[in-house]
């Protein structure tokens, strides 16, 4: 199987699927002259966040409507190559104690893998979509806000680059359930809710105000609907202002229950959750000092499409993030390059027999470059320290799934295998990630001495769970420590049902 995917060409279709906490979205676009032309959009209100029980569980009653929606999306995606489709899950799936219990049937229904992204990565993708759809003025910063069902993202960016990113657990569904769970609406309850919400802004509001921005833009269905209300009430023409928001809030508080709310421009679909969304937006205007906010039709799903183009054009943000990790933790660049070269040489020899792909090759290369970042903490157990840093750092461009893959590779580069690190991965990825870990282990082992002298030709044949490694006899005799390490590696592999055969030639 070739490791390189064919580059994008005019006429190719790309698709992004956004499994939001309130709605699932799909957008299909055609790549034409370096740009995207949207050819199809589908949105379904699923209200996934309504199924959260507060203990990391998901109400089984929510599953059928989620899976039915994904099956319909899957039908539309059937003719698009998998490498051109990216499906992203956000806050609700992030909160699940066992996300795989949802993701496995969801991936089956959709027919594609689904990645879970952290809040700040979600924020980056939101900004990317808005910035492409509504380019900011050159040299001027913009604030972008997106109120989802379970979380709200705040981004300050310039051009196409996100400078500041924050994600708070205060979406329209989550906030409505938190403060108005019984459906009752009172001024006293609103005031108490505002006090709690305001406290959560303290962690970043001051820094955002100091950074400053030229204009503010909202990108979510909730903000669009509040803008529609403002326009229908003849408070504004194309935006939301602090004054119009105040009028809408006062009008809302005239109703005693959520079901009774009737506002011009408010849809029946949004009515049950508008109170929570308005509460968040109202607090944001006050705490961030927003005077006017315009609305964008673009959001995370468009950002995912442009991210796919960036990866195809070798403008992959993940490459910059890996370089940043290496710089931050003082990685020995020469040693990392040696390990990477050997790991990729082994990969190329095992690729066909193990059915490895381009994503596996990239992950192996990145893991080789950062395999020693744990040394910045301590030499003892540095592979464990490195895996923790990789899994829990904010790494732009990487989904949680991708970070957990990298963490599993770094964690298993030496010593005994830590199989629980593979349990965090989707089943569809485990076999190949484990195989890449075997290759990384061999590369790290053969460069243990940090010797700058080049290795001899290393030959590798793989057949299922068996690895046959061939090295020159004279070189092995001159490197007794490496030979001893290889014999020890044979024992480590045997413990997980793999067989390593070392042959001197």
UniProtKB/TrEMBL annotation:
Biological process annotations from GO: polyphosphate catabolic process
Compartment(s) where it occurs, according to its Swiss-Prot or TrEMBL record: Cell membrane
InterPro entries in UniProt: ATPase_NBD, Exopolyphosphatase, GppA/Ppx_hydrolase, Ppx_GppA_C, Ppx_GppA_N, PyroPPase_GppA_Ppx
One CC-aspect GO term: plasma membrane
Residue stretches spanning the membrane: none
One MF annotation (Gene Ontology) recorded for this entry: exopolyphosphatase activity
Annotated ranges, domain Ppx/GppA phosphatase N-terminal: 27-309
Cofactor(s), names only, from the UniProt record: Mg(2+)
Pfam families noted in UniProt: Ppx-GppA, Ppx-GppA_III
Entry protein name: Exopolyphosphatase
Biological source species: Arenimonas malthae CC-JY-1
The protein's enzyme class: hydrolase
EC number: 3.6.1.11
């Amino acid at each position: 199987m070739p490791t390189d995917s064919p580059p994008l060409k005019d006429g190719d279709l790309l698709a992004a699927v956004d499994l939001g906490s309130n709605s699932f979205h799909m957008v299909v676009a055609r790549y034409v002259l370096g740009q995207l032309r949207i050819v199809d959009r589908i949105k379904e209100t699923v209200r996934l966040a309504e199924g959260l029980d507060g203990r990391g569980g998901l109400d089984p009653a929510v599953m059928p409507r989620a899976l039915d929606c994904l099956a319909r999306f899957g039908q539309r995606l059937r003719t698009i190559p998998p490498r051109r489709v990216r499906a992203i899950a956000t806050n609700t799936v992030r909160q699940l104690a066992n996300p795989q219990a949802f993701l496995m049937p969801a991936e089956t229904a959709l027919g594609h893998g689904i990645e879970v992204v952290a809040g700040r990565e979600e924020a980056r993708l939101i900004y990317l979509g808005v910035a492409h759809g509504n380019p900011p003025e050159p040299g001027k910063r913009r604030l972008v806000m997106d109120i989802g069902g379970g979380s709200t993202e705040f981004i300050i960016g310039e051009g196409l680059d996100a400078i500041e990113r924050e994600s708070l657990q205060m979406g329209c569904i989550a906030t409505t359930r938190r403060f108005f769970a019984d459906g009752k609406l009172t001024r006293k309850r609103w005031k108490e809710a505002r006090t709690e919400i305001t406290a959560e802004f303290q962690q970043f509001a001051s820094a955002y105000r100091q950074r400053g921005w030229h204009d503010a833009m909202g990108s979510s269905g909730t903000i669009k609907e509040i803008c529609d209300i403002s326009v229908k009430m003849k408070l504004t023409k194309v935006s939301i202002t602090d004054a119009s928001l105040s009028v809408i809030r006062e009008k809302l508080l005239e109703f005693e229950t959520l079901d009774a709310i009737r506002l011009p421009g408010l849809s029946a679909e949004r009515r049950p959750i508008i109170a929570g969304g308005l509460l968040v937006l109202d607090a944001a205007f006050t705490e961030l000092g927003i005077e006017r906010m315009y609305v964008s039709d673009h959001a995370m799903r468009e950002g995912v499409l442009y991210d796919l183009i960036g990866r195809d054009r070798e403008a992959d943000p993940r490459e910059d993030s890996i370089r940043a990790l290496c710089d931050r933790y003082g990685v020995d660049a020469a040693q990392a390059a040696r390990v990477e070269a050997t790991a990729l040489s082994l990969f190329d020899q095992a690729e066909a027999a193990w059915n490895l792909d381009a994503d596996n090759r990239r992950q192996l290369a990145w893991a080789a470059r950062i395999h020693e970042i744990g040394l910045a903490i301590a030499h003892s157990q540095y592979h464990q320290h490195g895996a923790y840093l990789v899994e829990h750092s904010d790494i732009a461009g990487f989904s949680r799934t991708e970070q957990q893959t990298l963490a599993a590779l770094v964690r298993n580069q030496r010593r005994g295998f830590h199989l629980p690190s593979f349990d965090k991965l989707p089943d569809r990825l485990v076999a190949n990630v484990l195989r890449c870990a075997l290759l990384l282990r061999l590369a790290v082992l053969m460069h243990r001495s940090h010797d700058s002298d080049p290795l001899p030709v290393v030959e590798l044949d793989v057949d299922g769970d068996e690895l046959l490694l061939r090295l020159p006899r004279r070189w092995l005799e001159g490197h007794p420590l490496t030979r001893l390490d290889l014999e020890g590696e044979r024992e480590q592999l045997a413990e997980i049902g793999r067989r390593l055969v070392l042959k001197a030639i």
